[in-house]
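Technical note accompanying the year-one report. For the benefit of new consortium partners, we illustrate the data format agreed upon in the data management plan: each record pairs a sequence with a structure-token string. No post-processing was applied to the example shown here.
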Amino acid sequence: MRIFVTGARGQLGHDIMLELKKRDIEAVGVDIEEMDITDAEACERVITEAAPTHVIHCAAWTAVDAAEEKPEACRRVNALGTENIAKVCGSLGIPMMYFSTDYVFNGQGERPWEPEDEAEPLGVYGETKYEGELAVRKYVPDKHFILRIQWVYGINGKNFIKTMLKLSETHKELTVVDDQIGSPTYTPDIARLCVDMIQTDKYGTYHVANKGYCSWYDFVVEIFRLTGRDVTVRPVSSEEYGAKARRPYNSRMDISKVEAMGFKGLPPYEDALRRFLIELGA
């Protein structure tokens, strides 16, 4: 087995590379310096030369607000870039794993989204990630994993928790939205499941998240409780807070398919947060 990983220096790609190394699985990791995914010829050349048995595609445009300002740039990465990789996987006859998002749904209601629910993408980011899903299904129809993930954080790069901890050093009061509900999800936990999955032929679309739901407000309160930060956290609505891109109110995802297909699910988000804070030394 030889795994080709795009976005290998990003938050998720970094931990997938670590997980593959831990299991002694041969891996080739690339980022934009080695392969620009928006360049079809480069994708074909670099992937073909690497001769992988599988591809895990982590590279993505994840700046949700910036996507609204630069929709075509975002589309080139998330839709065209994914299509370029999917075409190569299809021509080589190898399995592909792609990461999508809860933003492919409209974010309304309270029922957890199921993998088979109809997509109604929210904003440019959601639209382009869904276009990526369609490309994977079109060009790698029988050998793909599509994993929809959300509220992701890890040790590598920037994330919400690091931002909150940094703000706590200079602010005694913070306002955080309390009407968006989802599951904060730790990248090493995603990585472990990905490597479990990629070694099987249990293809399909999965929702992947740490167990349990909370609001961003609840999450920040827990972060500061665990780290002993004396900061007042004030809940506000999404409307009050304001942002260029609309965020889903309902990011709850039904993750039951993971265990139903025989995989070990992810632990509760509270457990993951504690492990991350220890790793961070916070």
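Partners are asked to follow this layout when depositing records. The longest strand covers residues 96-101.
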